[in-house]
């Protein structure tokens, strides 16, 4: 693959995302699709210049207006993206979308539409499909007016255009001029997609706009941050599999958590933890069907793990596959030169005891506000809780998927307590059979263990793990899951310690490597965006409303111009890591809902 060309790569936060709940593509503010996996979220990429150079696949479509101001917006209340150029000579817009198909079986179709709003402009098109993460040799050929992209063992793709195209070294090229109010359309998808015909694009656009607007119109949120909350909800919905109900952690792989670093993971999978938190966010907004669909997917995973020899994985492929071996793509130079670029995620082999708590919290909430649990589902749930009773005292790698030594982590203990607490509550409310005495005894034992073994008297705060003295951003969940009062003196002392150690201008680090060399990886990482929103909610719950409000407004300014967030922030609050990150957006929704209620002086019937 070509050498690294940093000038050709756009920053992570210079992207919008489009999707059809089967796949997703990133479009930068220069009008280029530089990341697209096809036909599924976790399929091999066909465009991957975001992680290398244009040689790794790109779809460039832009006007020859070098001095223009560029901006991106979403058409209101949709995931339809518009990139605009404003100059003295012309105003131009490119509308990008993956149309929502009639059924879940429709293969993704990339639709790009140009319109000259005023003036006159010449456009340049360059479409270089590069199959299989740019590992396969893709051949292009002209078929009537269309261009066909083919590679051995890979799905063939067709580029349809209402403009004349030519070929150069298996790249489709085009140059054309449009006058004011003239439009041009381009479609890229399966070679036999029935939507390749004149006039189909207009119908696709209308249907897609209606789908997104009808969906977000169901949201019950009417607070002061409605635009940001709706954008977060739309991003979460885009990351939801229409067919399976699973929810992705992020749309991308290999984007670095630190400039030039090697913490570059594949997040195109479903983490039980992140997806269960997403259920919470959807429920907060009154979007129950998404929560129900995820729980139906999750029931399949829980039933898969019954028996002594099987365990509940921390992550799965969207279709439920359990084995996701990690592979390094050595031919890709990485974003900003950050190598290695990885696909797959070896964390599927890890044991993280906290996932039982997130799982049970989601089950509890869906039973309270969505579909009631079935008899078979409760039987499986009881078996999961029995696993918690047997394993809660074990060491694990913790929420952050440490690749070093195992420890007794506070967050893992906390979520084991949540698992038992929510199971007991659910059984009581629904009059379900359960070994209440044994479960309650274990719940009390975990409660005592946390207070006795994770409180450091010398430091005057809770600690990340037994035997350590460091802090951890996941501690911010302690009051949010109602383990401790948000105004308990020991918790407030811990919150104060977190502020002094992990907070930088409202941005929270998960942990400090200099405090605790436990993650088994060289280098450092950025501030963790989800923890930053958890911090806001902790401040609000502690009664520090003005401070929480200011911190929240600052964090909102760290979004990209479209209101999207990646996983982390660098020291300049620029985006790092995979994007858009579900965990960040759901934490924003939770913080916005609670803070808005506090600022309005309202009480809500909705309680987790």
Class per helix and strand makeup: alpha+beta
Give the number of DSSP strands: 26
- Which runs of at least 5 residues are low in confidence (pLDDT < 50)? 1-7
> Which percent range describes the beta-strand content?
15-25%
User: Averaging pLDDT over every residue, what do you get?
Assistant: 92
Distance between the termini: 50 Å
Do you know the CATH topology of the largest domain?
Glycosyltransferase
General shape: globular
Do you know the CATH architecture of the largest domain? Alpha/alpha barrel
Q: Profile the largest sheet.
A: 15 strands, antiparallel
CATH top level assignment of the largest domain: Mainly Alpha
Helix count, DSSP H or I runs of 4 or more residues: 14
Tell me roughly what share of residues is in helical segments.
25-40%
Oligomer: single chain
Work out the radius of gyration.
25 Å
How many domains? The number is: 2
């Amino acid at each position: 693959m070509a050498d690294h060309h940093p000038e050709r790569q756009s920053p992570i936060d210079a992207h919008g995302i489009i999707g059809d709940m089967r796949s997703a593509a990133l479009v930068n503010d220069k009008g280029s699709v530089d990341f697209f996996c096809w036909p599924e979220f976790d399929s091999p990429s066909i465009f991957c210049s975001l992680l290398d150079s244009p040689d790794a696949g790109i779809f460039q479509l832009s006007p020859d207006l070098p001095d223009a101001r560029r901006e991106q917006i979403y058409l209101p209340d949709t995931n339809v993206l518009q990139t605009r150029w404003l100059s003295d000579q012309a105003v131009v817009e490119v509308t990008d979308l993956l149309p929502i198909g009639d059924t879940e079986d429709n293969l993704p179709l990339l639709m790009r539409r140009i319109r000259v709003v005023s003036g006159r402009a010449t456009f340049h098109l360059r479409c270089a499909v590069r199959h299989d993460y740019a590992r396969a040799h893709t051949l292009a050929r002209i078929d009537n007016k269309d261009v066909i992209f083919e590679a051995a063992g890979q799905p063939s793709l067709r580029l349809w255009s209402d403009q004349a195209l030519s070929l150069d070294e298996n790249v489709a090229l085009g140059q054309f001029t449009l006058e004011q109010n003239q439009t041009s359309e381009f479609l890229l998808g399966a070679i036999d997609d029935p939507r390749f015909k004149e006039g189909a694009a207009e119908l696709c656009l209308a249907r897609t706009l209606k789908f997104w607007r009808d969906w977000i119109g169901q949201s019950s949120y009417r607070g002061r941050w409605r635009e940001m909350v709706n954008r977060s909800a739309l991003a979460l919905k885009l990351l939801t599999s229409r067919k399976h109900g699973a929810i992705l952690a992020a749309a991308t792989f290999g984007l670095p958590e630190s400039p030039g670093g090697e913490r570059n993971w594949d997040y195109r999978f479903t983490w039980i933890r992140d997806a269960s938190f997403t259920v919470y966010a959807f429920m907060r907004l009154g979007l129950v069907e998404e929560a129900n669909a995820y729980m139906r997917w999750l029931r399949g995973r829980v039933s898969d793990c019954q028996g002594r020899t099987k365990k509940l994985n921390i992550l799965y492929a969207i279709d439920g596959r359990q084995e996701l071996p990690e592979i390094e793509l050595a031919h890709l130079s990485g974003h900003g030169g950050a190598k290695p670029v990885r696909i797959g995620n070896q964390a599927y082999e890890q044991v993280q005891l906290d996932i039982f708590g997130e799982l049970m919290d989601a089950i509890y909430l869906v039973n309270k506000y969505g579909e009631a649990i079935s008899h078979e589902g409760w039987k499986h749930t009881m078996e999961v809780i029995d696993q918690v009773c047997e394993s809660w005292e074990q060491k694990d790698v913790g929420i952050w998927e440490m690749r070093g030594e195992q420890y007794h982590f506070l967050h893992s203990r906390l979520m084991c307590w949540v698992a038992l607490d929510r199971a007991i509550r659910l059984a009581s409310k629904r009059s379900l059979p359960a070994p209440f005495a044994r479960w309650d005894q274990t719940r009390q034992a975990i409660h005592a263990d946390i207070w006795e073994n994770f409180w450091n008297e010398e430091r005057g705060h809770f600690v990340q793990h037994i035997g350590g003295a460091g802090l951890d951003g996941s501690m911010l969940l302690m009051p949010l899951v109602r383990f401790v009062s948000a105004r308990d003196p020991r918790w407030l002392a811990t919150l104060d310690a977190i502020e002094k150690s992990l907070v930088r201008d409202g941005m929270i680090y998960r942990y400090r490597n200099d405090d605790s060399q436990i993650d088994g990886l060289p280098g450092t990482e950025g501030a963790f965006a989800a923890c930053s929103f958890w911090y806001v909610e902790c401040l609000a719950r502690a009664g520090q409303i003005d401070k929480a409000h200011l911190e929240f407004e600052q964090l909102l300014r760290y979004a990209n111009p479209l209101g999207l967030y990646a996983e982390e922030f660098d020291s300049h609050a620029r985006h790092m890591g995979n994007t858009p990150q579900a965990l960040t957006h759901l934490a924003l929704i939770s913080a916005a809902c609670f803070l808005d209620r506090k600022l309005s002086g309202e009480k809500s019937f909705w309680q987790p």
